[in-house]
Amino acid sequence: MLVMSSFHAWRTGCFSVTQKSAVHFVPTMGALHDGHGALIQAARQAAGDDGHVVVSVYVNPTQFNDASDLSKYPRTQDADVDLARCCGADAVVFPTSEEMYPKGVPGRAEPSDYGALTRLWEAAHRPGHFDGVVAVVRALFEATNPVAAYFGEKDWQQLAVIRRLAALEFPELDVVPVPTVREEDGLAMSSRNVHLSSEDREGAKALYSALQSVVRSDGADEEAQKQGELLEQAGHRLDYFAVVDAETLEPKRMQGRPGRVLIASHWGGVRLIDNVALEG
Ligand code: PAF
Asked: What is the Å distance from ligand 1's center to 29 Cα?
């Protein structure tokens, strides 16, 4: 497996491979866990023996609306290389900010307006976040020119935003969703979970239980309301807990369309997000 410090070096270092092979791309910010492992394995399986699976690791400053979140973000370069290798990657690239933002890292990325997708939920609570995600993912797609790119369903709204970006600017690209990987007690795997104390780690699983209760009620708003109140009584500070249309993310669900239950909560000094599917 190649480990490269720039896309330039990767393109040069495996010129013959990338000339012939379709690139299957897994963009990450590092601190890789089994959720990322599932993305890399899905890419490996789709790429087969001929395709080229490339993982990028870049902690993108423009998508952090909170400076302390950026400075605390875990960086585990050696372990990331090991995990990527075990899961079948052909190359891991650690690009620099100079390569990702040749004109300098902007204080805030150019705004992207995808309607409700860039206005509601995460967008409302993390101003500028999706502008940064769109800017860096666009640059990553341009650098890797993939046939397929793999994203976790855990960041459901990010997935919807990237699907829209691809539809508008990279119509040939296949955006492949990969189901959320959970700990045994249901907590969605996340790079930020390492910041939870063992006591807070125990209370964090309540998020998934609450989501499941809403699924059992077939997405009833009253159940979401009740579960939200129970979480708040237990000490969670919710940013949102909502039943939405799975594609548009509008809060109104139309009969027969797939829905999604979305949640974001501050708990134990960590901001946790999760979501689950509702059948149409
Ligand atoms: O999901 C992530 O890890 C990041 O948001 C991404 C897609 C790699 C862009 O920085």
From this structure: 6
Nearest CA, atom 2, ligand 1? 28
Beta strands in 179-251 (DSSP E): 237-245
> Does the C-beta of 144 come closer than 6 Å to ligand 1?
no
Q: Is 8 a catalytic residue?
A: no
Q: Is the CB of 175 under 6 A from ligand 1?
A: no
Instruction: Calculate the alpha carbon distances from 5 to 11, 48, 98, 216 in Å.
Output: 11, 25, 11, 47
Distance of CA 280 to the CA centre of its chain: 24
Q: Are residues 162 and 247 in the same domain?
A: no
**Residue 186 resides in a domain:** no
Using an 8 Å Cβ cutoff, are 41 and 154 in contact? no
Query: 227 and 213 in contact (C-beta within 8 Å)?
Result: yes
Q: What count of other Cβ atoms lies within 10 Å of the Cβ of residue 7?
A: 22
Q: Which of 8, 24, 33, 36 is catalytic?
A: 36
Do both 105 and 202 map to the same domain?
A: no
* Chain segment 102-158, per-residue pLDDT in tens: 999 999 999 999 999 999 999 999 999 999 999 999 999 999 999 999 999 999 999
244 has a pLDDT exceeding 90: yes
Range of the domain at 217: 191-274
The encoded tokens of residue 4 equal 């490269």
pLDDT band at 208 (very low <50, low <70, confident <90, very high): very high
Q: How far is CA 187 from the centre of its chain?
A: 15
| 280: in domain | no
Whether residue 258 is contained in a domain is answered as yes
Q: Is 210 in the pocket of ligand 1 (CB under 6 A)?
A: no
Instruction: Identify the pLDDT of residue 20.
Output: 63
- C-alpha span between 190 and 197 (Å, rounded): 14
Q: Tell whether 169 and 30 lie within a shared domain.
A: yes
